[in-house]
Amino acid sequence: MSVESAREKGSTTTVDDFNTEEDKKLLRKIDLRTKPYPNIDALISLEFLRPVMLAHYRIVGLATDLHVTPSEYNTALALYFVAYVIFEVPANIILKRFDPQIWLPSLTLAWGIASICQGLVTNKAGLFGIRFLLGVTEAGLFPGVIYLFSVYYRRHERSWRVAIFFGGAALAGAFGGILAFAIGKMDGVGGRKGWEWIFILEGALTVAVSLLAYFVVPTWSHKAKFLTESEKKRLLARLEADSDASLVERFEWVYVKQALTDHLVWAYAFLFHGYAFVLYSLSLFLPTIIAGLGFQSWQAQLMTVPPNTLASLSIWGTVWVSSRFNRRAPFIIGAAGIAILGYIILLTTKSAGAQYVGVHFAAAGVYTGNALLLSWPGENVSAQTKRAVAVAMQITIGDIGAIAGVLIYRPNLSAHRFRTPHIIAIGYLLFSVLVAAYLSTWMSRENRRRDRVLKESKEEIEPSPEERQRLGDRNLRYRYVI
């Protein structure tokens, strides 16, 4: 197994030394390659915009034009997530053995072409097929980006970066409402419907972004050409002091097995499973839910903007506080509580105004909880291949919850303003609370146990880089972020 150490022999550098002005300048340089348009942030925002836009198209004519019944519309939504579930773990295994600078833009290019094709479909069979293909091409992007972050940032720096682009994804939902309102103006241009044009234009934009991304999306940290040799050395040193990210780890199936047999990895996956149900059902059916409060379709489209905007602000504010305290579980549980309050308001009030307030609570809690939990395995799972599989597993199992969400929010359960689906959503959130509590309790006890073992040990337990890589998060000196 090849291992390269970033720290010079005899160095006395500590974790506390890595918050200097030099490090802040280095982080800003890395951020410029991982966050702003047209880089990773744009790729993720476009990914989240597409399913949200399909939700608006149900109101503005797609289902009618393609002769899709309400239940078939739900099937089209579900097929997208079925492809996600099948291909996410294989996609991240390929990423670990390949190069993110090529793999991520290539996925985006394929997805943009598929999106253009979605604007050209003429029947429901074509819609079903292209929805599945979109899921295939998008499956590796989100977990791939989260994993890439884990090889550039220290553990406590990752959650804030994930939150920034997840907040951008929430804003994409807001822009989706504005775009859905605007596409009515394009209806008939070039003999095409408005929903056809937005898919075509969005796909063309995605293709353009993917071509630029080949030049700006970074490769692995130890090969980063946009950094000088001294900057690269500093980056690898600060990563080595914090985690396994500075090690050059060859792919081995033993790490895949470690991920598949770790109860914490499965717990992260089930945590997202509960949250994914409400994330995708809320984002995909928000225009329908708001329209059900008595608003016209154009009003429902525009009225999705405030709750999605509030969700973005909630994400950034909460994750900033979470990073300051270096705690995840309390905020994930608290976000679930806010979302549950929103659903209770939707269930117990009768006026449209009060229920619209409930929508805001639900959106803020759901999006904020997801932004926090999606970075959690990236902070707590080591070694690298194990982490790549763990991140993909989390989203894979989570998206099974998304499939359940789009199938449960179906027409025959829409009575009393989706009363039954809302109750089920509360159940899923409570399930996530229990999983988060389990993770917090187990990891806290394990951290205390490791402290006790090291304190009682008569010999210094300092594994070599090779041994540290092999042990990963099972290393006695490894501490979980709770």
UniProtKB/TrEMBL annotation:
<dbReference type="InterPro" id="IPR011701">
    <property type="entry name" value="MFS"/>
</dbReference>
<keyword id="KW-1133">Transmembrane helix</keyword>
<feature type="transmembrane region" description="Helical">
    <location>
        <begin position="305"/>
        <end position="322"/>
    </location>
</feature>
<feature type="transmembrane region" description="Helical">
    <location>
        <begin position="354"/>
        <end position="376"/>
    </location>
</feature>
<feature type="transmembrane region" description="Helical">
    <location>
        <begin position="102"/>
        <end position="121"/>
    </location>
</feature>
<feature type="transmembrane region" description="Helical">
    <location>
        <begin position="127"/>
        <end position="150"/>
    </location>
</feature>
<dbReference type="InterPro" id="IPR020846">
    <property type="entry name" value="MFS_dom"/>
</dbReference>
<feature type="domain" description="Major facilitator superfamily (MFS) profile">
    <location>
        <begin position="1"/>
        <end position="449"/>
    </location>
</feature>
<protein>
    <submittedName>
        <fullName>Major facilitator superfamily domain-containing protein</fullName>
    </submittedName>
</protein>
<dbReference type="InterPro" id="IPR036259">
    <property type="entry name" value="MFS_trans_sf"/>
</dbReference>
<keyword id="KW-0472">Membrane</keyword>
<keyword id="KW-0812">Transmembrane</keyword>
<dbReference type="GO" id="GO:0016020">
    <property type="term" value="C:membrane"/>
</dbReference>
<feature type="transmembrane region" description="Helical">
    <location>
        <begin position="195"/>
        <end position="217"/>
    </location>
</feature>
<feature type="transmembrane region" description="Helical">
    <location>
        <begin position="421"/>
        <end position="442"/>
    </location>
</feature>
<feature type="transmembrane region" description="Helical">
    <location>
        <begin position="77"/>
        <end position="95"/>
    </location>
</feature>
<feature type="transmembrane region" description="Helical">
    <location>
        <begin position="329"/>
        <end position="348"/>
    </location>
</feature>
<dbReference type="Pfam" id="PF07690">
    <property type="entry name" value="MFS_1"/>
</dbReference>
<dbReference type="GO" id="GO:0022857">
    <property type="term" value="F:transmembrane transporter activity"/>
</dbReference>
<feature type="transmembrane region" description="Helical">
    <location>
        <begin position="162"/>
        <end position="183"/>
    </location>
</feature>
<keyword id="KW-0813">Transport</keyword>
<feature type="transmembrane region" description="Helical">
    <location>
        <begin position="265"/>
        <end position="293"/>
    </location>
</feature>
<feature type="transmembrane region" description="Helical">
    <location>
        <begin position="388"/>
        <end position="409"/>
    </location>
</feature>
